[in-house]
Known about the structure:
Helix content: 25-40%
Strand content: 15-25%
CATH class of the largest domain: Alpha Beta
Distance between the termini: 125 Å
Strand order of the largest sheet: 4-3-2-1-13-14
CATH topology of the largest domain: Purple Acid Phosphatase, chain A, domain 2
Structural class: alpha/beta
Shape: elongated
CATH architecture of the largest domain: 4-Layer Sandwich
Radius of gyration: 28 Å
Number of strands: 14
Amino acid sequence: MKKLLLYLSIFFLVLSQEKSHAHSSEFTIIFSGEELGNLEPCGCYEGQLGGIAKRYSFIDFFRKQKNPILPISFGDLLKSCGRQDEIKMETLCRALGFMGYVLHNLGEKDIEINPQVLSFLSQTQSVEFLSTNVNIDAPFPIKINQTIIKDCFDLGSPVKIAFLGILSRSLLGSNVNEYITVSEPTKALKPFIKQLKNKVNLIVLLSHATMEESREIAKCFPDIGLIITGHHIEEPQDSITYVNNTPIVSAGTGGKYIGIAKYGVNKKTIERKTVEVIPLDHTYNDSQEMVALLQEYQHALTEEDLLSKIPQAPLPNGLSYTGSFTCSVCHKRIYDHWYKTLHAKAYNTLVEAGHQYDPECIKCHTTGYGDISGFLNYEKSQSLINAGCESCHGAGNNHIKNVNEAYGSTDERSCELCHDSEHSPKFQYKEYWKKIAHPKESLKKTSRK
């Protein structure tokens, strides 16, 4: 009898342990935003952060931990509203869907996009659009949720998490269409928070606003448990702040970082464990799923021939581009030197990356793109590939006609058109100039009779 009781006690102990481990005891909110059109690092220098391929691997790592995760997007997938941006918007929405994002909060750049594109994406993509204070009464139906509630049933006790999203009116530009209405954030939030605070376990606000505005919102609504915010925050790891017990945190810009907020669950009580922001560096491999999607994106740019559809600006005084080889007739020594520099290989770096049909990349890797007579595409403008002589010195047809006239003076400002903080953050004019400085040559001035 004693043995039987012992066996039964062991059995029930094991059973109770199995039940206790049948459910997770924590969940993680993963957040990103303000990509501003950055699908992947441009590749212009080593050690770049970010990209959807690394982000997929990061999220996949957490998904394999078997704890529930809720990836959410803060807003501003785009930087502008042209045709290339529309293709980016669709690519990024597809990427969010593949990564299991539950929502995307609309930022001011998102609502500037063609309403027909926004309508299509809101109804065909798995990621839901969120905004508590933006109303779009467009000719095309756009599905926008004022609040999104997610139930987590695999946490032992049912847990409800409510997501609200606002867009600050101070961020609106001149491109906002007349059929878009943006309400004052606190007025829009008030009825929802009053309704939700006793019905959900956690309220999360995606506040597409400045840090200062989000702090004021936190003071007005202490029932909000987490605020994801920030606009143009370059160093998000140093920007985490608190109002009372509410963390206010940003994932930075350009998709370079990703944020996580971990919560523990004890019965129906939620306890915040950590809030942190992590750089998407070389620690995370590029996922093949996203690499394939990025290749589809480049293919779409090629199919639509966007290179040839970019408007071309006229040059003053009848100027036109001639190509670097034309310069070699008189400046052979300089041309031979240039040919050995990285400037002369600029176009090939795009070909190797598969970006030679990307208008955003091509300008600094060719000569005169965006100007009449400048590079248009490889088939029509082979003489203008690479960062050639006229990239720095300007269109040279008049110089050929009259070599005695002053031409081609350049300085640090010319270099910084491409070697800017985004694509060449370590640029130092004096050091870089040494790599491309022309050899001296003796040229006699000539006169035309």
